Amino acid sequence: MDELLLTLPIIQPEAVAPAAPAKARKPDWLRVKLPVGPAYANVRRLVDEHKLHTICESGNCPNMGECWGAGTATFMILGNVCTRSCSFCAVATGRPNEYDLDEPRRVAEAIQLMGVKHAVLTSVNRDELKDRGASVWYETVVQTKQLSPTTTIETLIPDVKANWAALETMIAGGQEVVSHNMETVGSLYRLVRPQAKYDRSLEQIRRTKEAGKRTKSGIMLGLGEKQDEMYKAMDDLVANGLDILTLGQYLQPTKRHIEVSEFIHPDLFAHYKEEGLRRGLKYVESGPLVRSSYHAERHVNVPI
């Protein structure tokens, strides 16, 4: 999937401000500005001209105005129809018919034309493809590096369903960061990610780390997770070699998707950041409006 690119004191759990009720109005800390300005308009024009997909649009990202307005970008490759039916995701589900072997060239040229310093690449799940789309992943990274050798790249890759040969191809193009989102805690996987497995995603992160990559993942809060489950998820991620973790508030994209269980207070996000660092993560981006690619350009400097 093409998307555009686009912190607080230790608080004891019992002292953390309570979460707002799910049915309440969105709290003030979740308000964002509408996307405006010439930089935003320029990115919109280039995306339309090059017929690119962005997760910013497909995923209804609340940071689209900030990121597009800054002229930074995350691109979604392999179409905009996903073979999975996760209960949180706004991306269309179905049988994809788009498989464009020329897409790596178009994405690479768009990144060069935009003068992007740091690009994030992501994609839908393509479970129907034997290689899960790995060859397109590889070529997109390689061709981007050829045209823009100073551009750093993060790839936010899907679950390969234990196709480890596909994983090796996906992460071999020379990207600086490889991300795979856990999305939620283990107890909620059947509800939130019914076609994924908690332990399999952990193994994918572990294998990525063993390949020498800078590893990253993301978890949404407000789906009904408990604090002790969040601590366990952090410990599991550290044990499997994770370097960077992003934590953000889940927002229900449509009435057809899973409801928000609670709006998490910024103080609790601050607490989770401190807990993650204390438990061994090297970098934690934590806040209500944080999404996978938020401040992604900072993550390439995390030591591995």
Automatic annotation (TrEMBL):
Catalytic activity, as annotated: [[Fe-S] cluster scaffold protein carrying a second [4Fe-4S](2+) cluster] + N(6)-octanoyl-L-lysyl-[protein] + 2 oxidized [2Fe-2S]-[ferredoxin] + 2 S-adenosyl-L-methionine + 4 H(+) = [[Fe-S] cluster scaffold protein] + N(6)-[(R)-dihydrolipoyl]-L-lysyl-[protein] + 4 Fe(3+) + 2 hydrogen sulfide + 2 5'-deoxyadenosine + 2 L-methionine + 2 reduced [2Fe-2S]-[ferredoxin]
Bound cofactor: record note: Binds 2 [4Fe-4S] clusters per subunit. One cluster is coordinated with 3 cysteines and an exchangeable S-adenosyl-L-methionine.
Gene3D superfamilies: Aldolase class I
Keyword Metal-binding in annotation: yes
Record keywords: 4Fe-4S, Cytoplasm, Iron, Iron-sulfur, Metal-binding, S-adenosyl-L-methionine, Transferase
Binding positions for [4Fe-4S] cluster 1 per the UniProt entry: 56, 61, 67, 293
Pfam families xref list: Radical_SAM (PF04055)
Enzyme class: transferase
EC number(s) reported in the record: 2.8.1.8
Biochemical pathway: Protein modification; protein lipoylation via endogenous pathway; protein N(6)-(lipoyl)lysine from octanoyl-[acyl-carrier-protein]: step 2/2
Residues engaged in binding [4Fe-4S] cluster 2: 82, 86, 89
Residues spanning the membrane: none
Cofactor dependency: [4Fe-4S] cluster
Localization of this protein: Cytoplasm
InterPro entries, A to Z: Aldolase_TIM, Elp3/MiaA/NifB-like_rSAM, Lipoyl_synth, rSAM, rSAM_sf
One GO MF term attached to the UniProt entry: lipoate synthase activity
Annotated Radical SAM core domain residues: 68-282
Keyword S-adenosyl-L-methionine found: yes
Sequence similarity: Belongs to the radical SAM superfamily. Lipoyl synthase family.
PANTHER family (alphabetical): LIPOYL SYNTHASE (PTHR10949), LIPOYL SYNTHASE, MITOCHONDRIAL (PTHR10949:SF0)
NCBIfam families attached to this UniProt entry: lipA, PRK05481.1, PRK12928.1
Name by which UniProt lists this protein: Lipoyl synthase
Protein encoded by which gene: lipA
